[in-house]
Write a structure and sequence with these properties.
This protein has 368 residues and is α/β, with parallel strands linked by helices. Helix content is 40%, strand content 17%. The relative contact order is 0.18. The chain binds pyridoxal-5'-phosphate.
């Protein structure tokens, strides 16, 4: 058995031994029917977990989360149309950077990192600019731990008949999401976050009618062409290019374990982990970045450095790392913060143990 590390970074997350073991399978050519059938099952499972039905499908790509963000943006925005991107964190900025890389015209609606997205402002932009065809937003902005109101945004995009793109990379299977009820056309995630598989495969869950519209669009790139990958999967039961075979076996195992636990129970386990984490950190005098007037993800929190001359994040990280706990740096350049996430195969007892260890390490550093 491999050593069990508790990863408190927001993915790749801690996996179970059974998911690790699922990587070891007899060698198989991914063009064999047996492997194609496995991918078909996974594609169906992903739609089901997202709350979709026969009107939805999913498409797999080898790659990380950014690959499917890029595939979606480069494939979905119609030629000569604009995309509205709602930004309150670093991943929203990434959406805009991807669009600009493809010379897609972007309208940005910016809010301070971690601040609430104002729905009225979305409406007034959509009302004023008919050239906007798509709206994109991050569900769980992992920069800070805020949950954006995708249900309410989906009502607006539906009313204005815009294609709705949601990055659910760090929320899928960890926060309640329903692709139908939220009027989402394209949502994306990866194998290695709340689904608790291994890093290397990413996926887009799509409304079929929205996907069909892409058929006539000229491709903006080669490898990440969403429609071509979909068509190839449908026709041939294969991805266009070599998939990460073993990672896909591990993903199937991770999905089985998600069904065994139940999505709702998983969401509740993360909530409980998060509650124990925040209570423990408060007792150790840590202060949080997020204000109370926004919705927290219950998966990740951003924490200010302690105001003490002996506090040093790198030393704290290294000491905790040696004891099997990985904490994560902040992503806000002008503030001294770090982040802790509770996704993955980690349980309330692990978080209690972490808080105890953190207290001891702070004492070692001369911080009482
Ligand atoms: C919300 C969100 N989007 C996109 C990404 C990028 O994913 P990757 O690093 O796998 O490319 C992340 C990674 O943490 C994320 O949390």
């Amino acid at each position: 058995m491999t050593r069990r590390n508790i990863l408190l970074n927001p993915g790749p997350a801690t996996t179970t031994d059974s998911v690790k073991k699922a990587l070891i399978v007899p060698d198989i050519c991914p063009r064999e029917k047996e492997f194609g059938d496995l991918m078909q099952e996974i594609r169906k499972d992903l739609v089901e977990i997202a709350g979709g039905d026969k009107n939805y499908t999913s498409v797999l790509f080898a790659g990380s989360g950014t690959a499917v963000m890029e595939s979606t943006i480069s494939s979905v925005v119609p030629p000569n149309k604009k995309i509205l991107i709602l930004i309150n964190g670093a991943y929203g900025i990434r959406f805009a950077e991807i669009a600009r890389t493809y010379n897609i015209e972007v309208v940005e609606l910016n809010f301070e990192f971690g601040k609430r997205i104002e729905l009225k402002q979305i409406e007034s932009i959509l009302r004023a600019d008919e050239e906007i065809a798509c709206v994109a937003v991050i569900h769980h902005e992992t920069t800070v731990g805020i949950l954006n109101p995708i249900k309410e945004i989906g009502e607006i995009t539906k009313a204005y008949r815009k294609t709705f793109i949601v990055d659910t990379i760090s929320s899928f299977a960890g926060v309640p999401i329903n692709i139908k009820d939220f009027n989402i056309d394209f949502m994306m995630s990866t194998s290695n976050k709340c689904i608790q598989g291994m890093a290397g495969v990413a996926f887009i869950i799509c409304k079929k009618s929205a996907l069909e519209k892409l058929r006539s669009f000229k491709a903006r790139n080669y490898y990440l062409d969403l429609f071509k990958q979909y068509e190839y999967l449908e026709k041939n039961n294969q991805t266009r290019f070599t998939p990460p075979v073993q990672i896909i076996y591990a993903l199937k195992q991770a999905i089985l374990e998600l069904y065994e636990e139940g999505v709702e129970n998983r969401i509740n386990r993360y909530k409980e982990n998060y509650r124990i984490l925040k209570d423990g950190l408060k007792k150790l005098n840590f202060k949080f970045l997020m204000k109370v007037d926004v919705e927290e993800s219950n998966i990740l929190t951003t924490i200010h450095y302690l105001d003490h001359p002996n506090f040093n994040f790198d030393i704290l990280h290294d000491k905790l790392y040696k004891k099997g706990f990985t904490i994560y740096p902040g992503k806000i350049t002008d503030l001294n913060t770090f982040r802790i996430a509770v996704m993955g195969a980690i349980y309330p007892a692990d978080i209690k143990n972490f808080i105890k260890t953190l207290g001891n390490v702070l004492k070692e550093m001369g911080i009482n």
